[in-house]
């Protein structure tokens, strides 16, 4: 049974609409993560203080996977003076935006005993029914999806399920996707649906690398009043043959049997919407399994792509594949960002796509044509038996935000001389030919690693300065293919503590992977391991690059002051000239001067802020809000906090 907690009197009246609202995950459907608010500036940000704190009380108690997988990645929405967000455990909350007081709470009663691949939810969506009486129940709705694959519609005023939506306010998303009983908890939804008119468009998160025949990565659209499915689109066409790669026509095609069995290629990151053009932009992931493609020949379009679909019909408009025949788990992992660029005296509607490879792709969002050139370049070809890699990969003319160079023994780094020597020996034993080095039996250094580069946090756009600001990681990983007969003995040997194993059922090889690290647990290459980078899209150059975060909270003292920490989350820009970002493995929220990259404010937090902050105005004050709950897989401090910062009242 679902549970609802309603604060007395809230349903009767809502406060007047605020001057600026944050109505969708990325601020609005365009995903710019920019607040046009200027009350807080580089000159006064030093006086920023904690305005209020809310605690969800949710630390995953009773969930079998909470210790290993629970996160708090939500970016709240703010509409009509109310803040809305959810947790990975299926609880949704409404708070007073000025005080943080609870207005209502809803519990979707997510099963606690499933073996969830991820325990993440990045937020909720909001919709106003233009055809309904404003006072009617569910005239405004909060839509959120759960890790057990349900789409739920709630009355924004009361938190009560909208009875006319699906069955008792919810739609089951696990039907028609080839979900088997042994995979329960592996087909999830971790990003909020995209709202376009009266339609919600939603992807899915699929547990990687279990085998070839994983769940189907279909994208679906639902009517927001009834919950009826309108259309669905599969990034892997199930027709007799798929089109050959236009750039490499000799590379081959996916035959009918392979097309039938290949799964995933799912869109797990947030989608973006161009309401004026009636388009939804879908970032897709890798086909199954990630690290061996011998049973899915060719490029597997439209996996690892950004694709434009008609909102009304699901019609394919254009697509751009950013990785061919993925062997590295290089999903398109972040929300496309819709911006307007000046070209030859005219405004061009552009799509900016950050990528795990650290590349920045900029496309015309009407046609998919590259606004900065994209070149096909030859990449390493030394592969295991049965694999046929793509001879080339796409490279953007914009400078990459992370290194693509090989990792060599002379690059070894360590906290001590002994540590560095151990790293040098390990690097010498592994394959490393730079980016796109295929996985191997001996072990391959993947640089950047499968976590990015840029991950789901994406970037933020400052339209006045034409700056794209993104936090990125510089962490190499080791990926090793394991012959089928050796997989179980290696897994059970106890010799691979800290390695992640995956069976890749249906292929000749299992897989194991881990961070390339020293015996003391530090990365084997020199810091910074995390950076905040600004790209000037008017000039096509890097405006500035700064180390982000420190080694505090991960390394023992006296090693707290190493600059440039690993990070998961995203930035926020404001019209006041500031970029706010948490994300790092130390427990801080930071503000940077967007023009120069100078760090101008830090605030110690009670837990890791592996979420993207947002900002709004309420009662004449600008607030910056971030979720601080930590990230189990990332190893940061756990908590249940939503924290709001503002200048002292009256300033």
List the helices and strands and how they pair.
Blueprint: E1 3-6, E2 34-35, E3 49-55, H1 66-69, E4 77-79, E5 82-86, E6 91-96, E7 102-107, E8 125-128, E9 140-145, E10 150-155, E11 170-172, E12 187-188, E13 194-196, E14 199-202, E15 205-206, E16 219-223, E17 229-233, H2 256-261, E18 272-274, E19 279-283, E20 305-310, E21 316-321, E22 337-343, E23 346-354, E24 360-364, E25 374-378, E26 392-396, H3 417-428, E27 444-446, E28 459-462, E29 467-473, E30 477-483, H4 484-492, E31 500-502, E32 509-515, E33 530-536, E34 541-547, E35 571-574, E36 578-581, E37 588-593, E38 599-604, E39 614-618, E40 621-628, E41 641-646
Parallel strand pairs: 2-35
Antiparallel strand pairs: 1-7, 3-41, 4-5, 5-6, 6-7, 8-9, 9-10, 10-11, 12-15, 13-14, 14-16, 16-17, 18-19, 19-20, 20-21, 22-23, 23-24, 25-26, 27-30, 28-29, 29-33, 30-32, 31-32, 33-34, 35-36, 36-37, 37-38, 39-40, 40-41
Describe it for me?
The chain is mostly beta strands and about 650 residues long. The protein contains four helices and 41 strands. The strands form eleven sheets. A five-stranded antiparallel sheet has the order 1-7-6-5-4, with no helix packed on it. A five-stranded mixed sheet has the order 2-35-36-37-38, with no helix packed on it. A four-stranded antiparallel sheet has the order 3-41-40-39, with no helix packed on it. β9 and β10 (about 150-155) form a beta hairpin. The longest helix is centred in the middle third of the chain and has 12 residues, at about 415-430. The chain starts with a strand and ends in a 5-residue tail after the last strand. The relative contact order is 0.13. Mean pLDDT is about 95; it is low at about 10-20 and about 240-250.
